[in-house]
UniProtKB/TrEMBL annotation:
InterPro entries: Ap4A_hydrolase, Calcineurin-like_PHP, Metallo-depent_PP-like, MPP_PrpE-like, Ser/Thr-sp_prot-phosphatase
The Calcineurin-like phosphoesterase domain, residue ranges: 1-196
GO cellular component entries: cytoplasm
A Pfam cross-reference name: Metallophos
Phylogenetic lineage: Bacteria, Bacillati, Bacillota, Bacilli, Bacillales
UniProt entry keywords in alphabetical sequence: Hydrolase
Enzyme class: hydrolase
Protein name, per record: Bis(5'-nucleosyl)-tetraphosphatase
Length: 249
């Protein structure tokens, strides 16, 4: 399988189209198709914070559900949007407010259509993708080797939020253990969730969330070539949003 795995898009539709074109995909049909039959992988967090979350949803739905040309693994922002669309009480903060604002601007009929598309996408996709004879795993915030193949609350929390210790940094953000330092599994793990200035390879893991929505870039990892391709963000740069050191405890 030849797959191009794209990091956290967060509503950056323009950069998404640019990156797929850079990867050799054509949008002549209205969605990206590669002449050599490559497909696209998504590490989650399609929406929130960026300017065009709903267009990203529509493209990923079209690729994944309609045409079977992509694999999607949900992120924590995807999970929160799903809970919002399900009618659960969630705080409309941390970027969800931008997606909700877009959604509420639509006529009621269009709201129902986009809501159904996203819920179908979420419900028909696994928590994480295990592909290529278990040689490749796409998981939003990563996954431990002993969690691969399992689905329970601990695994779900790890995949969506990372290896959270329960402690807090002075700014209130959660302390996360640097699980990648201790990963020695045989599968290549591709993930995002934590914005980094440059793609981060540790052991057989690749963090490809290069903070497009914070003014960084949108990055794809080509597999099996393990080649990185990026396009620059069109949004303002916020240096404080990028992780430059990692917890090890």
């Amino acid at each position: 399988m030849k797959i191009d795995i794209i990091g956290d898009i967060h509503g950056c539709y323009k950069e998404f189209t640019q990156l797929t074109e850079e990867l050799g995909y054509s949008w002549g049909t209205g969605y990206p198709v590669h002449p050599d039959g490559r497909i696209i992988g998504f590490v989650g967090d399609l929406t929130d914070r960026g300017p065009q979350s709903l267009k990203v949803i529509e493209s990923v739905y079209e690729l994944t559900i309609v045409h079977k040309l992509a694999l999607y693994a949900p992120g924590n922002h995807c999970n929160k949007l799903y809970r919002y669309f399900s009618g659960n009480k969630v705080q409309i903060t941390h970027g969800l407010e931008t997606t909700v604002a877009e959604y509420k601007e639509l006529p009621m009929r269009q709201q129902k259509i986009i809501r159904k598309k996203f819920m179908d996408l979420y419900e028909q996709s696994p928590l994480y993708q295990v592909i290529n004879n278990e040689k490749l795993v796409i998981a939003h915030a990563g996954i431990r080797s002993d969690y691969i193949g399992k689905i329970n609350d601990k695994v779900k929390s790890f995949v969506l939020y990372g290896d959270v210790s329960g402690a807090k940094h002075p700014d209130g953000s959660p302390v996360r253990r640097d699980w990648a330092q201790f990963y020695h599994g045989h599968a290549t793990i591709v993930y995002g969730h934590t914005p980094v200035l440059e793609p981060r390879k540790v052991n057989s893991t690749y963090n490809i969330d290069t903070g497009c929505v914070f003014g960084g870039k949108l990055t794809a990892l080509r597999y099996p070539e393990l080649e990185m391709i990026s396009v620059p963000s069109t949004l303002p740069f916020f240096a404080d949003k990028f992780k430059t050191s990692f917890d090890e405890s």
